[in-house]
Amino acid sequence: MMDTRIEEILDFWENKLPEYYSSDVIRLTQVQMSLDIADFLLNESRPNIFILEAPVGTGKSLGALIPAMLEKKHRILSSQVIYATATINLQGQLTREEVPLLKKYGLVNKYILAKGKGNYYCHERAMESLHRYKNLKESLISFLNRQKRVTEMSMKIFIGL
User: Fold this and answer.
1) Position with higher pLDDT, 78 vs 57
2) pTM for this model (two decimals)
């Protein structure tokens, strides 16, 4: 089983990706990363945690997603792959570039993009802010009117009226 997965991963890197991107450049670090992740996914006797760190531009997204999605494809039970990113920009890159590639080769049917609640419009929070602003605006107008009266009174006293 492991040999089959390795052959699939290598085929993806050596044939499908160069075809998709019209390039024959293969990043060996991505291929090695994919093979390491595939080994982790197939070896059930290992702990359930895999930590991966690599410099920006290494190709971690595809390096991780290709073996994960191939493994998901071969599992009899339905499973999910959750790929979390640190930035919304990387999420955008995934949806624009990697997801279409994975869809083309039948590795992704559907996906969910979740940007966190702080990045979505919340009508209730907007109404609360508007209400606070309205109260603040009324308070400010009231304050300025009081200041105006004080200033007018001060001017009368200063001028001697």
Assistant:
1) 57
2) 0.66
